[in-house]
Specification:
By secondary structure, the protein is an alpha/beta fold. The protein has 16 helices and twelve strands. Belongs to the Glu/Leu/Phe/Val dehydrogenases family.
Amino acid sequence: MKDLLQRYENKEPEIVFHWNDPETEAEGWTVINSLRGGAAGGGTRMRKGLDRNEVLSLAKTMEVKFTVSGPAIGGAKSGINFDPADPRKKGVLERWYAAVSPLLKSYYGTGGDLNVDEIHEVIPITEESGVWHPQEGVFNGHFKPTEADKINRIGQLRQGVIKVLENPAYSPDVTRKYTVADMITGYGVAEAAHHFYDIYGGDLTGKRAVIQGFGNVGSAAAYYLSRQGAKIVGIIDAAGGLINEAGFSFEEIKSLFLAKQGNKLAAANLISFEEANSRIWELKTELFLPCAASRLVTQEQIDSMIANGLEVISCGANVPFADKEIFFGPIMEHTDERVSVIPDFISNCGMARVFAYFMERRVQMTDEAIFNDTSLTIKNAIEKTYNHNSSSKNISRTAFELALQQLV
């Protein structure tokens, strides 16, 4: 596996597009690792301090993810080094998408990512630049549809991603009009934990869980995990944290989901980040869901959780461990050898799978069909890993090897 990984990591990306905004200090990159299958896909993120290497590692991560979610295309990513809280953000995005629109028309498909919203920013701004849909390049480069078929499938994709959830089994509140895009990634992260116990043995009900990050992914994962009977004992977010060693009730987790302010945890009894960070890793817990930014989780934190009963990690963040390596650094390897680590390209593939699902011909557009498709995709990936390695250790190593055999 390590030889495959080294060859994959060291291979130079096929295309690197570099942009400097003429009106601000913003700088951006689109990295296309390869045009496997004639196209590449990956979302657009924005954060202050982002660099080319971050975008490159995420592009390679996307390519691995597509081996699970489909379609069989290359990995890509766009990243803009700019403060997303700056009031000039909209103008930066408008100029960025205008510059990158020839790629989006031809062979690159994008979507939302960290600090860039799929529905309110990516879709309308790319439309202004003459792109039919942010995934148009995947249609043209990979599927090569007729014009009529392209129109039909793009229409299906447009409708599906922004579809408002109507089924209370999937929506925390049907009156608030949560969409598929709002909920699907966190749903997949929770489903990965559920399927792990079904396949490897055990029962999710009553398992204690710690959630890192309470944005779109972490809050939705906490909601669905709690709904399935797990006990959330701790939540840590940039805004602060909450700890309840007996476990929050499902109604309490649902209320926290509904009360969040944008992508931040909000509660009257919030403790400071510093206090939460000093206490949360010592909690007795079987499940850990890292759903914040990449490369945050340290070996010290992991070892503390292992000492307190940790069994499973379902990765909501891409590359959650604080390794400098693109994928499988020493912290991840150390963790993978001791507990069950469901890698990000399986557990957080929900949005990528939704795109792939709606690119197919005439799919069902019900909440149940969309969410079941993502759940089944994750289940199949975990089962495939289990069939090659039935041990609860080295799951990520096995999953990477299976993926890289398709790419190297």
